[in-house]
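Page header: ASSEMBLY MODEL / two components / 602 residues total.
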Amino acid sequence: MSEHLNLKPNIANADDFYADLLAAHKGLSKDESDAYNARLLLILANHIGDRKVLREALEAAKSKT
Amino acid sequence: MTKIFETPLYPYTRHADQAAKTPVRRKVVVIGAGPIGLAAAIDLAQQGIEAIIVDENDKVSFGSRAICFAKRPLEILDRLGCGDPMVDKGVVWNLGKVFFDERKVYEFNLLPEGGHKRPAFINLQQYYFEQYLVNRARELEREGAPIEIRGGNKVIELKDQGDHVDLTIDTPEGAYQLEADWVIACDGAASPTRQMMGLDFVGRVFEDNFLIADVIMDAPFPTERWFWFDPPFNKGQSALLHKQPDGVWRIDLQLGWDIDKEEEKKPEKVIPRLKAMLGEDVQFELEWVSIYTFQCRRMEKFRHGRVLFAGDSAHQVSPFGARGANSGLQDTDNLCWKLKLVMDGKAPESLLDSYDDERIYGADENILNSSRSTDFITPKSDMSHLLRDAVLDLSEHYEFARPLVNSGRLSVPCTYDQSPLNSLDKLDGPARTRPGSPCPDAPLGDGYLLDQLGDQFTLLIINADAPEELEVDGIKIKRLALSSADDSTNAIKERYLGKATQAVYLIRPDQHVAARHKTFDQDYFTTALRRAIGKSA
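Prediction written out in full:
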């Protein structure tokens, strides 16, 4: 059975996670924040691993407006 | 027509205490006749404790101010005998819509759980809220309860003498002295009492201004909460539209930090802003305009000897989430039964320290939630702005992003998980009714469970055996025995039994669970009651 990208809520306490994310950026310059985001997405992508799911994620993140 | 907030409801009149040769000693003096002060005095007076409210003004709140009242405070008002006029007049709403730029990105329904007497939320102008509390205080006064509202009475000096508090109160006819066994300071965020006592009030200042307007209009907007992030009519900022009774609409517009407040309040500035939002053709009339800034902060302790702080005087939050007045009512709900037991000599004075434990815990939860909402609504850095906009973009298309959208986490009561008044949970029951929890309502016979609880300790017995009478250390415990036959909707089973077939709950006078057990265990409940009144068990 092949996995699909999960676009349903999946984080137990979304507000706590978002606060952690903002805290991670606290005190960083714009360049440092951009670099942080790049590292973060590579780490998360590696955790996902599945190429098909990653392709779906790359598609889902494209701007719709 | 004169508006209710223009009518002196408790004008100054001379009181015999002002002519007394030696200062008269009163039981409790409540400073401030706002929602929290009135609720405190009503709570005490209806239990027979003298409560004198002093307020330098003589009218209810000017403008709508606090408008969203949540279910738990409405339940508290039921206990105080004035829930009905609030809910009858208030506007019930469940649906919220979130807009980003020109698009509606999603909508949410509060979907209140069935089987509760009170709705999740009502909108009601603070001036009505205060008026109905004043009406209730007057009703109690007529029935002979020891309650009084002294308008035009401004406390200008107070000193805690250890066994009482000395007060100097200024009036239009000069100052007089009064003594009080206890003082409850409900005099708002700028609390003169707190300042007179030299107490700190530290926290975080949010550098933003919000224009707040009450608009009377006949417009086809539905009874919903509409929230805009970065709308075309207020670029780069936020906006909120909410319906109140009497065709009054509440509009909040974020203005940013560097503005001229006096200039922005002028009708010639406000009206074009509102027209841009509502449309050129909509006819409206401005009832009230104000500009507010906010802070999230609290006092280090709410109890200072014989002076107890409640509501905004003790803690302040941003308005997102309706956690101001709603949490203040939970303060007095928590405080008044404890104060009564201490004054009656049935509990040690240290019971009042649990007011600090429990309500500081509540205040911190409210400050955390309202700070997070504020950070989402008004991002403080480029990156938090970018992340915020990404969440909003994604929320239009993907369900996963919607829990991240934060336009205010609406007030819910907190569970006092760490309270020293709780006993060990001895029931394999639902988590929502564990010790420390506020009791969830449920249909019971022709009415509701919560109407049977409160004001005194109650033993709630479900399908179990327990003695007909129970008294511990001079405190009589009310008995409420139910069986599955009383629970036609199964709500009591679902909320209080879970997998268990029977249960016994010890419920505090403020309708929070103190202890629960599968059976009536005499030792367990005797110890639990003692612990719940602050006695070392």
